[in-house]
Amino acid sequence: MSATVPTPDSDPAHFLKIAGQGAAVATHADLWRWLQGDVQQWLAHEVMLIGWGDFRSGNLHFDIVSSLPGLRTHSCTQATIGPLLSYLRDCWVAAQNAPYQLDVSACRDLLAGRGPGWDRGEAIGSMRTAVVHGIGDGKRSGERIFAALSGHAAPPAAAATALKLLLPYIDTALRQMPPVPPRQAHCISNPVQRQVVRLSALSERERQIMTWVALGKTNPEIGCILSISEFTVKNHMKSIFGKLDVSNRAQAVAKLTRADAYA
């Protein structure tokens, strides 16, 4: 594939063609076909990950449009996708809400299952690069994050501009569709699996914090990343220790890692 990505200035007719196709998207199948069609010339990717909701509380929703076998919205859970979405959102904010490219090896723990809550063996773990942009209305509850993930080397610089231009069509199409339900937990009777379910008592915010704890971040660093005070992080840690029946950070990480291995 050529390293030159079309832009409205270089090929306005091509852009108008793609925009017209995007405006006609009405179903998830249509969206998949559109993203895997001419859009690939602008924005080569295998996975389009979209997240929205309240990033402050961690109450997030997501949608996945993917060409990879088995990687679908209904095959994933909020606990597995949430930490990655929060990380991408934090990076977008750090980029002053501008589209940016990311070497996802920097967050390999979130992708490959070494962080708590992520299913091992997911195809998303093979992704190498991401092009990320978002939509915000000044409130965290109104933010929506879009990430085009690829297993190939870094995309051309123009790919970030391409996502910015295509994002309104993706967003409009998704808002008009009924959401795809994520995977739900099943009734579990096995004692080891009951332990895993008990660990799910952690809130999404607590799981976010534990993700950063597992990556070696201190309370002040976690507070800065999540835009909360160090005192709030300490209170969450006390709650986590109580729920997991542990007395320190290392024990908490070890227990969540074991639970993730059984999940």
Question: Briefly, what is this?
Answer:
Helices cover 46% and strands 13% of the residues. It has helices spanning 12-23, 28-35, 39-42, 78-94, 108-112, 158-175, 191-199, 204-214, 219-226, 230-244, 249-262; strands spanning 47-54, 59-66, 100-103, 129-135, 144-150.
Would you give an account of this structure?
- The protein has eleven helices and five strands.
- The protein has 263 residues and is an alpha+beta fold.
- It folds into two domains: 12-175, Beta-Lactamase (2-Layer Sandwich); 191-262, Arc Repressor Mutant, subunit A, CATH 1.10.10.
- It has a five-stranded antiparallel β-sheet with strand order 2-1-5-4-3, sandwiched between helices.
- β4 (129-135) and β5 form a beta hairpin.
- The longest helix is centred in the middle third of the chain and has 18 residues, at 158-175.
- The model is unreliable at 112-121 and 184-198 (pLDDT under 50).
